[in-house]
Design goal:
Layout: H1 4-12, E1 21-24, H2 28-40, E2 48-51, H3 54-62, E3 66-67, E4 76-81, E5 85-86, E6 92-93, H4 100-109, E7 110-118, E8 132-136, H5 141-151, E9 156-159, E10 176-181, H6 188-196, E11 201-204, E12 206-207, E13 213-218, E14 221-225
Parallel strand pairs: 1-2, 1-4, 2-3, 4-7, 7-13
Antiparallel strand pairs: 5-6, 6-12, 8-10, 8-11, 9-10, 13-14
Helix pairs in contact: 1-2
The protein binds ribulose-5-phosphate.
Ribulose-5-phosphate binds near residues 28, 84 and 96.
EC number: 5.3.1.6
GO molecular function: ribose-5-phosphate isomerase activity
Keywords: Isomerase
Length: about 230
């Protein structure tokens, strides 16, 4: 069976020009993209990358591609990332990996933010199939949990726990991670602001009106979607 994520990553190669600064998220589609850039992109040696995840950074280094810390960069030409699901306005739910804060920072630095994946990622309207992930300052954990439960009384809210340490899972930024499973997806515009405004919330995993394009592939071929 064809790997549609690989096909979408291949289609993204044509967006890359010489000397660009490129941000990358995480996931299997992005892994394909890194390998394709290393193997097939004639500009590879001139590119500079910023990465949201340790795994992506490791692969970039292993493929001898140049990586800079995001803190040293003012802007990016392009940001590529996968997602769990996106809608017709290109609002995306992300972060099985709990790394959405850095991903959102990189997305906000880019002239173009391109979502990549197979066609299963697209839903006309975001639905409740995936949780909203909230990164929370440790000292604000209980108050944010209380306020979120008040805001979304029907939702199931669970803190991510470490499988190895019998304690809280700590994010790359030293914070707590909480998954909010809705029974019905709230209005995206309201959700975006409502959760972000709770003191102690570092960032949530709804990428509202940030992506500028999506490239998805399926049995029918490659589709480029604009908001
Ligand atoms: C990481 C993500 C990933 O982009 C998302 O899980 C998609 O991964 P894949 O390309 O393997 O489908 O949101 O936070």
């Amino acid at each position: 069976m064809a790997d549609h994520k690989l096909t979408a990553a291949k289609a993204a190669l044509s967006l890359i020009g010489p000397n660009q600064s490129i941000g990358l998220g995480a996931g299997s589609t992005i892994m394909h993209l890194v390998n394709l850039i290393a193997n097939e992109c004639k500009y590879a040696a001139s590119l500079n990358f910023a990465s949201s995840s340790f795994k992506t950074t490791q692969l970039l280094s292993a493929r001898s591609l140049r990586v800079s810390p995001p803190a040293l960069l003012h802007k990016l030409d392009l940001y590529f990332d996968g997602c769990d699901q996106f809608d017709a306005e290109l609002n995306a739910l992300k972060s099985g990996g709990g790394i959405h804060t850095t991903e959102k920072v990189l997305a906000s630095m880019a002239d173009e933010f391109v979502l990549l994946g197979d066609e299963s990622k697209f839903a006309k309207h975001l639905n409740a199939a995936y949780p909203l992930v909230i990164e929370i300052l440790p000292q604000a954990l209980q108050i944010v949990l209380t306020k979120a439960a008040g805001m979304f009384p029907l939702a199931t809210i669970t803190q991510r726990m470490s499988t190895q340490k019998d304690g809280a899972l700590i994010s790359d930024n030293g914070n707590m991670l909480v998954d909010v499973y809705f029974t019905e997806m709230p209005n995206a515009r309201e959700l975006n602001v409502q959760v972000k405004m709770i003191p102690g919330v570092v960032e949530h995993s709804l990428f509202y009106h940030l992506a500028t394009k999506a490239i998805i592939a399926g049995e029918g071929g490659v589709q480029s979607i604009l908001p």
